[in-house]
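Chain and backbone:
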Amino acid sequence: MQADETGPGAARRRGERWRAPYATDPAATRGRLIPEAISPTRSDFQRDRDRIIHSSAFRRLKHKTQVFVHHEGDHYRTRLTHTLEVSQIARALARALGLDEDLAEALALSHDLGHTCFGHTGEDTLDACLADQGGFDHNAQALRIVTRLERRYAGFDGLNLAWETLEGLVKHNGPLLEPDGRPTRRWAGRGIPAAILEYNALNDLELDRFAGPEAQAAALADDIAYDSHDLDDGLRAGLFDLADLAAVPFLRSLLDEIEGLYPSLEPSRRIHELARRVITRFVEDVITESTRRLAALNPRTVADIRAAQAPVVAFSAAIAEADAAIKAFLFARMYRHPGVLAVRAKANTIVSDLFDRFTAEPGAMPAEWSAGLDGAEPGRVARRVADYIAGMTDTYAVLAHRRLFATTPDLHWSPGDRSLPLTDP
């Protein structure tokens, strides 16, 4: 008997678009904080995606560190190239699951807007500098950017994004509040960032519920992208080699598969084959596991997904274990590599020096950033300085430090013993 070639299942097999009843519907959006005329050519989520792409914060991702400082090699990921990879995976997941691809893409493109110069080093440094003002969190900073700090439009500050986009930006990693109003475990120690609470008082983002499925897809796309590309970058930098990856059973099985299909394959191709297989297996697992969870929940609308007791877009237990093992390997062999830590220490010096100088002398910042700070209370000055530094690219931060200080740490570092060249031929 011939297989049924109609319906959502067939569309998924062909990679065609289809729309599930639980997808977030742009025609039913909860709208924008400041009402705007409806676009005759684009949905609200398409407009949000376009506003994010055209924002100043998005452009600056080009010269912000992912793991390696950007000038260490042309082929290492930057925060921008990472974001584009996340966007591609998020769209693939959204299409396979019948979700709104435009919303998934907007969330993927905006998820790292709040990251500072020098990657997590900059965030950790600013967090310590702002310890008395509630700390620094890149997710809360992304919300500040899209609701306050971008100043491009005549009618409002920020980007005035739709409720669903803001909800996904804030909650893509899950609820921030328990049903009884207490912070979830992630936020129990330090409390929910003030920027999120302040905005939530204006526009309730339902912090005690899960975000819609598009945000859940974007969050997993982030995990998949950096697992695969950090392995790629670490191998190309010579921080570890392919033989070391055998310590991770999931990766060992992929390497055995590649060796069986392509004996004696050159290292650069073997690395690429590994990275693409990591993405493929993870994506296919998310589609299978999410389809199973959706069938069990049987959601009629996106509201059913928000009210669920667990995410509906997720890894299976086996792939969640593989994901954790890859992250543990990368933490030990890449993020805590002595060379990487040495650069992090120098970057920490640059950020902390800039913060101390600007808080003591706000006039050393450009006029648009120092305006109104004469006689301001210290907390307001510190937050303004953090906004300014967080928006800096790696390049700009180094130049600002050179302008203000007699000596600036040299951030150039490259491993002395690489198994592969920094750039492809």
